[in-house]
Amino acid sequence: MRLILASFCLAGASACTQAAELSSTPIAEAAPPSATESVPAIDPPAAAEPVSETPAPTRVSSAVDATRLKQNSGMTLQWIGWEERGPALVFEDPEGSYRLSGQQSGADGGRLAVYGAITEIGPGYFVLDGTIEITGTPDADRQCKADRLWRFEVTQGRKYYRMRTFEWCDYLTDYIDIYF
Asked: How does pLDDT run across 68-120, given as a tens digit for each residue?
């Protein structure tokens, strides 16, 4: 399975989708296409049904948290490890809708993918309307995927947002963190 990092742009008056495949190449090296290059439109993943094609602008009641999200320093799932964070891209499209797309991969083949629209950013929290997938960790045959609203919060003065739904798949406790 490949994770496609989607970014959204404005083409005339309609939204278009560009994609760069996440691989071992650092996210900073994925250059956007030039104005003369043709970018094929792709359909969003079928699993991302809760995310509308043209989401409403994100409700932002905390500029501090919006900045923290845009300037985050990566994401982790405890089963894969806290030592090496995976990339988590958060950006705002021209209509004011924030998007999140990120992943973390482990040496044992385990993988975390998080993507969707951020519907609300408030003091110490954000709400994601999107998809979370965990495969191959902590057990090689584990397959978890869900599309829904997810709440992430900063608690106890920590320097990350933690997903607040811990046991959403097969009764294991998953700690998904996005660092700032």
From this structure: 999 999 999 999 998 999 999 999 999 999 999 999 999 989 999 999 999 99
11, β-bridge pairs: 14
Asked if the structure places residue 81 within a domain, the reply is yes
**Looking at the 3D structure of the chain, how many domains does it have?**
1
Q: What are phi and psi of 27, to 5 degrees?
A: -60, -30
Q: Which residues contact 135 (CB under 8 A, 6 or more apart)?
A: 1, 110, 111, 142, 143, 144
Alpha-carbon span 103 to 136, nearest angstrom: 14
Distance of alpha carbon 6 from alpha carbon 91, whole angstroms: 11
Inside any domain, residue 136 = yes
Look at strands 143-153 and 125-135 and give their pairing. Answer: antiparallel
Instruction: Write the pLDDT tens digit of every residue in 3-36.
Output: 333 333 333 333 333 333 333 333 333 344 344 4
Judge whether 8 lies within some domain.
no
Identify the domain containing residue 127 by its residue range: 47-179
Does some domain include residue 80? yes
